[in-house]
Amino acid sequence: FEIIFYKMFKYRFIIFFTTLHLSTSHKINSNIFYLETHGNTGYHGILSENDVHVNVTPPIRAIGELVCFFEIVRHHHNNVDIPFEIEVWNQDAGTALLSAINPLNCEQIQNYQFEIEAVSCSGTYSQRIAINIRVQDVNEFSPRWITNSNPKIELKQGQIYNEIIKIEAFDSDCSSKYGDICGYEIQSKGHPFSISKNGVLSNRKILNFSISHSYILPIVAFDCAMNKSLPLLVTIQVKRPCSNELWEGIASRIDYTPGTGPQSIFSRASLSSCNFLSSKLYPITYKIVVKLKTRNIGKGCDRNTYNLQNQRQLCGANTRSINLLTNSLDWLNIFETHDKQKKEQPSMIKLNGNNGAIIPDEILSNDPLQKKFTLSVWLKHFRNGNKHQKEHVMCKADDHRKNRHHFGIFIRNCKLILLLRQTCKEGEENIFRPAEWRWSMPEVCDGEWHHYALNMNFPEITLIVDGEKWINESNNPEIIDDWPLHPTKDLKTKITVGACWQGSEGKLKHGFDGYLAGLTILPGINEHIEVLKCLHQCAETLQVPASLDISQGTEIIINTGENIIVIDGNDRNDITKLIQQVAYLNTQEFPSAGKRTVAINTRVMYSNNNKTILLSNQKTEINIISVPEPTIKIVGTDNFFREYNDFKLGVRILADLHIIISSNGAYSNNNKMESCSIHINPALNPDHEELNVPESLLRMLNIEGKVSDEGVNMDGGEMVYNYERVLRQVTYTNKKPAYYLNRQFKISCSQMENRFISNEYVQTVSCHSLLNLFHKL
Q1: For residue 98, which of 115, 78, 120, 81 has the smallest C-alpha distance?
Q2: Which of 129, 407, 673, 709 could link 369 by a cystine bridge, Cβ 3.0 to 4.6 Å?
Q3: According to the model, what pLDDT value does residue 242 have?
Q4: Beta pairing, strands 372-381 & 357-358
Q5: Could you tell me which of 418, 433, 396, 425 has the C-alpha nearest to residue 486?
Q6: Residue 223 carries which DSSP code?
Q7: What are residue 285's DSSP bridge partners?
Q8: pLDDT digits over 529-573, tens only?
């Protein structure tokens, strides 16, 4: 009955029988039926975490009778569930198989202890034998970091740190082989750091800010089986050595691509926390001046989009202004042009203190320099020789016998001086009137280009320097009164540029040393202030956002020229925020490639001792990337024929001319042209040949046209299609066509101060009747 019951209800029987076993005494005969241990006191089992079969030593075996089953006996003092099962493996041999019900976890319980016994088919029980099972670890876990964040550490340069930081990892595996951290490793190369097996980071070499500002070290931990953790990124910041430089994170250079709009210059700038800003000195105010410097290009700004005359047109300057330095004036040929600008700026003249010139009377008639006028000029003064010597930009003086100066604008002792002597009226011979104004300013002798404009409305005068209206100060300008000049019937005057005429000696003296450009006079009226400001306006500017979230007490000022920004305040965060938003903008389509410099000048004023520290300037170079330049092409019917009588009446030689401008593969005639010329070789014979231009159209378009026997020169910023209109109406007349079978006209045009020049288009004109006659002969 027992055997049949066992086979049919094995598991139920085990439960029943076990219960019975616990509640009744068993028939035990260890001499007849027993578990074999080979002299050991018990069994020892090993089980891997990823397995369920227990390897038992010695093997479990019942001897003496036929075994029906084995059972696990829990110790009465052990409340832990026993997650094992045992079954007969070979009934004839009496062996058993011990298994885990499910895979076990060494990290939870590493050892299990219980007893087993065998039950024969006759109901005899063997002795109970203890078994000790050890769960063997599998390397299933990688090391992990105790910290959840990547450390960032700031270190001073010039020191060796034995312990910068100690980092620590752990491994969840239960064994020492897989669960102990055996070392740490820095995975990157080329750094002066090392890490010990205990996780202590140190530097082998002295740190140097100039070599590297920061290091990012990927560090891994590994267990004794070389299983590695994920990298921990340790950032080492090397502190800038404390000096008189307040700013950190200012780039030495940035690149700017034209057409990309405003670009931040100091996006990573921040105020230093060096020691000289702490201790007993507590800053109350910062004053920071950001200045855009463009001294290396032209007149201190990239103004080569339009020449000076065209710039005046764009600014809406009064058309009655007299330009004394236009390149159409022959008397200027005595002057040397700017070395680097011979083609680009023919109206920019170089003076050396000895080469002034007399302005012809027909250019300045009716004495324009009286009580009301505007005078403006670009000048670059060289501070050479005797600073007490007068250096005249322009002068009006007696033509002979006397040396009386009626008018003058000159430099002396690094002051800009205007002289204007009035002619006395009857009854006012002994009345003193203002006659000389002396402005003291650094611009006069700094060797840079500056724009000066004087609005005279005697006795009131307004000075505009680089687009900024001069604010009078105490005794600046100095105003000197003088007697009026008495009229003399036998004396006339000479007006000169670059020096002053000495009538008694019959020569020029007091010459100017430097460059002049754009010298203009508007007689009888004053130019609008906004126009004079516009003449200095630069396409390159510094920008800040229109709306800024800054606290009360922080102030930002931008000058009219938008090349200087002044920031005042005592809030470090506001100062940093403002500096980070300063941007460079270049609105030109084709600016001159090369470098511009932006400088930061910083003053720190302290409260406890009224001490002021002036920190060294810091600079960023802005590199303007070169962009593809436009091409200008003139096309048309390069050969055409006309009848004999047509030439006598006049023919339009460029009737189908077209000017094509392309940029980046796109074509357009909506661009502006600055000049076009028609060259004839050999020159016209004025006895029977002439070239005529549409005068009324030129006046309407404000294009200056100069016709000579050698051709036509046209100057003035105007749209391409309007230049086409003018050129198509140019007529050639020949009263004796037989003198030339073929006449050639060479046409070229240019933009942006001759930076971009067209091809030389050759138009050949032939007399049809004469050619037929020639072929018949």
Answers
A1: 115
A2: 407
A3: 64
A4: unpaired
A5: 425
A6: E
A7: 605
A8: 999 988 888 888 999 887 777 777 888 888 877 889 999 988 888
pTM, two decimal places:
0.58
Q: How many residues does the chain have?
A: 777
pLDDT tens per residue across span 28-75: 655 689 999 888 889 999 999 888 999 999 999 999 999 999 999 876
Return left, alpha or beta for 259; rule: phi > 0 is left, psi -120 to 50 is alpha, else beta: left
Q: Are 146 and 181 in contact (CB under 8 A)?
A: no
Structure tokens at 349: 């003249």
Question: Where in the sequence of the chain do the CATH 2.60.120.200 domains occur?
Answer: 308-536
In terms of Cβ atoms closer than 10 Å to its own Cβ (0-12, 13-18, 19+), residue 386 is exposed
Q: Which of 273-277, 337-341, 371-375 has the weakest average pLDDT?
A: 337-341
Q: Provide the 8-state DSSP code for 193.
A: E
The fold adopted by the segment(s) 144-238 is: Immunoglobulin-like (2.60.40)
pLDDT band at 774 (very low <50, low <70, confident <90, very high): very low
Q: Which amino acid is at 656?
A: D
Task: Give 184's strand partners.
Answer: 221
Q: Of 2.60.40.60, 2.60.40.420, 1.10.10.10, 3.50.50.60, which CATH number belongs to 2-136?
A: 2.60.40.60
Chain position carrying tokens 């003249």: 349
How far, in Å, CA of 58 to CA of 90, rounded? 16
CATH of domain 631-776: 2.60.40
Question: Which one of 2.30.30, 2.60.40, 1.10.150, 3.30.9 gives the CATH number of domain 247-292+539-624?
Answer: 2.60.40
- Say if strands 322-323 and 169-170 run parallel, antiparallel, or are unpaired: unpaired
- State the helix-helix crossing angle for 308-315 and 529-536, rounded to 10 degrees: 140
